[in-house]
Input
Amino acid sequence: MAVKRQISMVLDLNKCIGCQTCTTACKLMWTNRSGREYMYWNNVETMPGEGYPRGYQQAGGGFDKDGALKLSKQPSLEDYGIPWEYNYEEALMTGTDPWLRPNIKPTWGPNWDEDQGEGDYPNSYYFYLPRLCNHCANPACLAACSRNAIYKRQEDGIVLVDQERCRGYRYCVNACPYKKVYFNEELSKSEKCIFCYPRIEKGLATACARQCVGRIRWIGYLDDEDGPIHTLVEKYKVALPLHPEWGTQPNVFYVPPLSSSKFGPNGEELDEPRIPLAYLEGLFGERVGEVLETIKRERQAKNEGRESELMDTLIGFKHAEMFKLS
Amino acid sequence: MAMRYSIKYVVALCASLALPGTAMAEFSEFENPNIQEVQPWDTIRIGRVPDDIYLRDIDDPDDIIWDRIPSYRTYLSIAPPVHPSTRLRFNADSGTNLYFQIARTSDYFLVRLRWKDTTKNVATSIDGFRDAAAIQFALNGSTDTSYMMGSGPDSPVNIWYWRSDYDFNVEDLAAGGYGSTTLLPDQQLNGHAAYIDGRASVDQEWHLVMARKIGSDGEHQIDLTQDEIPISFAVWQGANGGRDGNKHVTQGWILLDNSLEDGKSFDDDKAQASTQTSNQ
Ligand code: SF4
Ligand code: SF4
Output
């Protein structure tokens, strides 16, 4: 879907500390009310893991090889996590309840399997994967909507649900393989990440990126040769889309994580990364190995006191350089 | 509220008037030999509720008056898919019978629908879809209008859409082709439904009445005074993910003969009434 310009985000998974500040920033700004309580337009999940909603990677959706929409399993509220509240007032203020407790018995929630990962000690591993709507170039949500209620803005490629046109059919929820469109029960309409467009229009970064403690996020236009996105995606080609095989052509890209080496039976270091290459290739496609080599090489250069434009970019010295919104 | 009240009212009435055989009529009615099978393009006459009968609630789905109004059966089949999303969910095997009755009082036009549904789905939630039903009218009164959501903005349809998830639950809509369904600015409909939770699953069904004042008008409101009105129906099964084009529909128009007895049209009737008034 051709647009005049495409805004884009790169996230460096080597830097994410899983603090959820981004999640909280997004929630406070957009989703802590009015039927959105269960939604996390931005979430950070532990990988390998179930993800949010639970099992979304196995659910289906997106496009097949011929470009036709694929059906997926519709996530249940339980798969997202039934939101709960605490009795702060009673437990902490009035003292009428001796216990601070949730109002329901939580059985699942976003990040429920935090830090579990895979593998056995000493070769266990995990990393954090922050996710938001990819504002895809070929959005499955848009293709699935029979009312043309979903559109992609010409000026920045942000994908939005027209709340006037939406009649709550939820084809989009089913079609998005990333499960980044959500159904609002209170309003009977679908809603999704809006890439903080009111901030973008004022030249500000999204809340998740601006608040990111690990400084792992860059924002800019794909075609801006002086911007960080171009540097990371086009020039050094170290940022890759999540699950490109789903066919939606995401505009959110990830620098895949390096990992320390595996230990052999006698505690010796093996020439093999803790996070299996095949696993990362399953997420980010076949170029992962090449990308990891580039990063290692550039890191080495920086270590040895040589210049590295790539490393300087990835360090993210100044917000002004990380977010280029003009 | 009105619904609950009315059912009690019917039962009480039936008991007190001791009408043999009618008290449990709802559960055997579908086998009733008096129910006439209607195909698309057939014409049926509209039943007239005499003026001396007082309807407590105009949209009571189980008012005993319905025992006196002719009942029709028509087959609804799965709507042909017109979008990749409906095509993905298309199940050609399924179809369902819809039982309908159409009546008017001097003020109101009433449609009563009944259909089998073993699953009562009254929530529009993350986990489920609601049951729903709709009546569609060709606004220009012509069968040239496509019975599949109208033929563009110049030949639109008026749709009365009942949704099971709201208390005030009938939407007055218009459409001129697929994907163009729009909520009308003036909502003029009354509607109520009752889910009959019979002991056996064959007895479980929805009863629904939708009503509108005959005289009310407005852009995209069906003119209920014209002599012939093309009408069609749709039912959505929440349990099967029914929404949008995932529905069962009449594959064509059914024609309502809306002219009054003795060839008098509704307008004549009104004219006569006003003449009488002015003569007094
Ligand atoms: S990630 Fe999903 S919701 Fe976002 S644009 Fe792509 S298909 Fe649509
Ligand atoms: S705020 Fe940044 S570092 Fe923290 S979880 Fe989010 S993306 Fe990761």
